[in-house]
Fold this protein.
Amino acid sequence: MVSFSRVRRWKLDIRAEDFSHCRSYADAVDTLFLAWSETESRPRWGDKTPHYVRHIATLVEIFPEAQVIHIIRDPRPAANSWRRHPQGSGNHHSAALLWRRDVSLGQEAGARLESGQYREVRYERLLVEPDSTMRGIFEFLGESIPDELVKLVPPSRDHPSADSNISELEVVPANAGAWRQRMKPVEIQRVESVAGDLMEQLGYEPIGPRRPSPPIRSVIWRMQAFVLHYVRMFKRLGKVRDNLYLLVGRLRRPGTGPSGERRVTEGR
């Protein structure tokens, strides 16, 4: 774990020997993240990796006391952001498909959890009402509200872009609707054609007619996202090395076959 490129970038004073007390995967992860939280003087750790929304049931099985905060954002700015992200899909069609799948999976998993384990938060409400929204989140977590939260208020003026010098305690309410100026009508139409049904269920109102893209374009866009994913993965040597660590670990795992699938043994 301490050999992973991302963990090394944390520059933690932690060694393999520090995991000697661990008797489960959850213990090992907890040890690693607690070491990070201590550098921030925080009593509790969290992880905001986006694709965890697809594995909520598994995560809660591993960490029974875990609490899940599912942040849902309007699919139009969400798709536009993911399309341009360095690890993104490269096109609005694939990004909208991903949004629809992830939001659905998150809500389905959340519906099966206890009320104290799952909470949905709208990104737009967080921007417009940051103080009350964050207070609700801290109450859900059962944590005391930090003193600096009182400073979490919209700035006196809207910053012109996300690249402006915004402090960690400032929010920009105008970002909730900025996609209307940043996206072309045809891009908005592509997202709404893919995600329109779920959008309306969540209260996000479409602004144009739905016109599904020709099947051949859908295939091309999906292939683009697929190819981009693997090209980017092999361009990042650190990521390749991490994947090799995972593969070796999987092959060395007791009761695991060459394919990495766990063998079922009678009596175990």
